[in-house]
Amino acid sequence: MPHTTAFARNQWYVVAYAHEVGRELLGRTVLGEPLVLYRTEEDGRAVALHDRCVHRRYPLSASGLDGDRIVCGYHGFTYDTTGTCVYVPGQRRVPRTARVASYPVVEQDALVWVWIGDPALADPGGIPRAPHLDSPGWVTVSGMEPIDADYGLLVDNLLDLSHETYLHGGYIGTPEVAETPITTEVDEGAGVVRVSRRMEDAECPPFYAKSTGIKGRITRWQDIEYHAPCLYLLHSRIAPVGVVPEPDGSDPNGFHTEITYAITPSADGHVYDFWMVSRDWATDDAEVTEFLRANNHTVVMQDVDALNLLQRTLGTERTGYQELSINIDTGGLAARRILARLVEEGAKPVEGVR
Ligand code: FES
Ligand SMILES: [Fe+2]
């Protein structure tokens, strides 16, 4: 298959928004592993199990809950929250091997993270934070779009915002985005790429002009922080030209927007694009909320359409085609290097664990 980025195992991935996991069984596929998610009646925690019944592989996500147990919708094999089968029809003895895998789950910052890999290595302390998603004083709009593209194409897309000028003109793009050079910092050890673009005198794109009411030109800062493999933060600050943060760093006249993405590889050539826009301004203005939701959804769909097209196009290329990279690609290339390392580390057999 052309242009597929290998999956990095032994990593945390966003599988759902916290509000999506409840008493209805939810099916998602992460790194090619089908998962079923639900929330227990007992203590309200989220559970993730392998989504295939051990009997004839019926999807458990198409089955039902009996209390905190999943009853397979085909012949009734019944699984507890650990994935252990506790009942089979027609006989008293439950086969010893009747169990499905259960996955470590952490809920944090309104996101449900799942660990794909060796459970013994799962460290919740390693999950990157996005506190604005679940903090007083912040309002968030969000959505999730599945894309039929290699997740590496979405990483590329998000690490280079110069595409805003062309793909998102009339929404978030203005000429200055593509014209302004970036600075890139890479923390190879931590697996973090930072890309900054500081525009000191720029046109205000409709996305911000309509929502903030700013009439003239703006200072626009875009500071990206990509925590490979899954979490992408874009710290956006805009203010009328001439308005600068106070010497102590406070910035009462600037507009701060946190744009968050979770890039979750689903299967080869498929990725979940979780998108969130959080703001600490006009937080009680429902019209602004609705405008940002609809406008950002349109912007996300422009990327979705472009990446679907790009993936289909790459599928018609001969293998071994060449790319040509320039300065704007520095962040994306760094991200590819880090992902390649994480893939390699995740593929190593772990001592003493089968
Ligand atoms: S497939 Fe699940 S019980 Fe038969
Ligand atoms: Fe985009």
From TrEMBL:
SUPFAM superfamilies: Bet v1-like, ISP domain. The keyword Iron applies. Gene3D superfamilies: Naphthalene 1,2-dioxygenase Alpha Subunit, Chain A, domain 1 (3.90.380.10), Rieske [2Fe-2S] iron-sulphur domain (2.102.10.10). It comes from the Bacteria. InterPro entries: Cholesterol_7-desaturase, Rieske_2Fe-2S, Rieske_2Fe-2S_sf, VanA_C_cat. Residues 12-114 form the Rieske domain. Keywords: 2Fe-2S, Dioxygenase, Iron, Iron-sulfur, Metal-binding, Oxidoreductase. Pfam families: Rieske (PF00355), VanA_C (PF19112). GO terms for molecular function: 2 iron, 2 sulfur cluster binding; dioxygenase activity; metal ion binding; monooxygenase activity; oxidoreductase activity, acting on paired donors, with incorporation or reduction of molecular oxygen. Transmembrane segments: none annotated. This is Aromatic ring-hydroxylating dioxygenase subunit alpha. It comes from Streptomyces apricus.
